[in-house]
Amino acid sequence: MSIDESDIPALARGCAVLGTGGGGDVRTGSLAAIGAVREHGEVPLIGLDELDDDALIVPLSGIGAPTVSHEMIHSADEPKRIAEEIERLFGRPPSAIMSSEIGGSNGVAPVAWAARLGLPLLDADGMGRAFPEVQMVSMYVAGLPADLVIMSDIVGNVVTIRPVDGLWSERLARAVCVAAGSSALMADYVLTTVRARGAVIEGTVTRAIEIGRATEGAADPLGALQGSLGAVRLITGKLTDVERRTTGGFVRGTATIEGTGDDRGRRLTLELQNENLVALEDGRVRAMVPDLITVVDTETAAAVQTEGLRYGQRVTVLAWPCDPLWRTPKGLETAGPRAFGYDLDYVPVEELTAHG
């Protein structure tokens, strides 16, 4: 299978949904992907079984605040500089590009990066969604050492970091990102195929395209999307309050939705850190990380990123289960509610919403 220009709109819609509010605005990633595919041709989409055991896989993602990344667009040279640094360090070139996170622009832009580098795209990622911090990837949960991070920014700087562990990779990469204006391109966990097996979440590019296509031509886009995701509807209503700030390389804040129609009289509050982390109704948790919480336009079912939340929008909030990897003890330690400072024991979304 290959990704051509006709696949990109569906991929972008699916990645926006999986982004749970973060991962960057898919519009910029889509434009980059379309331009690169037109210039360099379609991108082969491959599985791990199509790579040699010692092939180098490069997980790439934009790091920084989504409110910055859609204004400070990645240059075409950033992935090239990272690939050159990898070849210098390993003595051989990369064999494939992988999205570090399938959510948001970080799920779409790898099509552009792969096209420009003349490499295939791996049908996998490190999250199955989007998360805000560097160590919040499946490779870290799988126990692989986070001993190399390579970053490049729009100015042309290239920074190679040799952190002692995943938590230090976040601290150091975030500091470099902030110095670069809160937006940079990053490769972390450069993997051989052998090490990638069991450490990445496979099939997520294909899944994103399927999600994006679910609403195409649907008489009820919201119902079609909810069915495709196996999601529960937390509330349908109007955005009445948005508090958002960019600090320390993140977007943080809250958003409040007042119910309309059958949900009139209800109020849902979302806690944000790039992504939607916790949904609360009258102090009661309705959903929490690492499960997915996404805000969508009620009429079109198009996902609304955190930086796009505006007073008066008519939206629906959907939630659904995360990949099983995130429900393991190590997964919850890495990206459960306590990892974000919430004094909450994780409860799966299907249990929290079982009784409405």
Automatic annotation (TrEMBL):
Transmembrane segments: none annotated. Residues 7-161 form the S-Me-THD N-terminal domain. It comes from the Bacteria. Residues 166-349 form the S-Me-THD-like C-terminal domain. InterPro entries: S-Me-THD-like_C, S-Me-THD_C_sf, S-Me-THD_N, S-Me-THD_N_sf. This is DUF917 family protein. It comes from Nonomuraea jabiensis.
